[in-house]
């Protein structure tokens, strides 16, 4: 059972508000303004990728901030990976990019023949996040389960990314199985999670 927060009584109310905020924020930006915001996000994230060899990103949904500007700045020794699903019931894994085929939800994902990889750093899309690293996603638990499996095998850094409106003072409601973020980045800054 989720621990409630003073801001939101439960995850569903947090998710509904976060999706509204994300949708409104994205709708207020034209293509040029979105590109400026994505470049500002990359300015905060890229210097912190360090020696991470495999950086997992995602193919953005309509109102999500696009991590493409981050991926465009990867060094020659780094490679991009993306979530991959065999079908809607399958566990999420990461495969070496680019996202060339439609996945079960219509998002781009690498082909089934692309190598499966364990990323060093995962750029995690957020619906909402707080500065303690609690993340509200779309509610299916794909990232939490995949990150828990990955962390059972090796160390991995998690960076929640989104529009500035998606980072809230918190605390957000959380369940015991929620995987906390190491940091959150928005076009306005970099926020290590305590």
UniProtKB/TrEMBL annotation:
Keywords: ATP-binding, Ligase, Magnesium, Metal-binding, Nucleotide-binding. GO terms for molecular function: 5-formyltetrahydrofolate cyclo-ligase activity; ATP binding; metal ion binding. Its cofactor is Mg(2+). ATP binds at residues 135-143. It holds the Pfam family 5-FTHF_cyc-lig. InterPro entries: FTHF_cligase (IPR002698), FTHF_cligase-like_sf (IPR024185), NagB/RpiA_transferase-like (IPR037171). GO terms for biological process: folic acid-containing compound biosynthetic process; tetrahydrofolate interconversion. Its EC number is 6.3.3.2. It comes from the Bacteria. The keyword Metal-binding applies. Substrate binds at residue 64. It catalyses: (6S)-5-formyl-5,6,7,8-tetrahydrofolate + ATP = (6R)-5,10-methenyltetrahydrofolate + ADP + phosphate. Belongs to the 5-formyltetrahydrofolate cyclo-ligase family. NCBIfam families: MTHFS_bact. This is 5-formyltetrahydrofolate cyclo-ligase. It comes from Allosphingosinicella ginsenosidimutans. The lineage of its organism: Bacteria, Pseudomonadati, Pseudomonadota, Alphaproteobacteria, Sphingomonadales.
């Amino acid at each position: 059972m989720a621990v409630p927060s003073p801001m939101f009584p439960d995850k569903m109310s947090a998710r509904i508000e976060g999706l509204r905020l994300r949708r409104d924020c994205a709708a207020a930006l034209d293509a040029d303004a979105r590109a400026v915001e994505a470049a500002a996000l990359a300015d905060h994230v890229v210097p912190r990728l360090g020696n991470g060899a495999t950086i997992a990103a995602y193919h953005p949904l309509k109102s999500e901030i696009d991590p493409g500007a981050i991926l465009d700045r990867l060094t020659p020794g780094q490679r991009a990976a993306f979530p991959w699903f065999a079908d809607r019931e399958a566990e999420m894994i990461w495969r070496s990019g680019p996202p060339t085929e439609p996945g079960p939800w219509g998002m781009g994902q690498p082909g089934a023949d692309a190598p499966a990889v364990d990323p060093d750093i995962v750029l995690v899309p957020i619906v909402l996040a707080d500065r303690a690293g609690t993340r509200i996603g779309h509610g299916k638990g794909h990232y939490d389960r995949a990150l828990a499996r990955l962390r059972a095998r090796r160390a991995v850094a998690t960076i929640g990314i989104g529009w500035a409106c998606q980072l809230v003072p918190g605390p957000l409601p959380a369940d015991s199985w929620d995987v906390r973020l190491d940091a959150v980045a928005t076009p306005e800054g970099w926020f290590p999670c305590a």
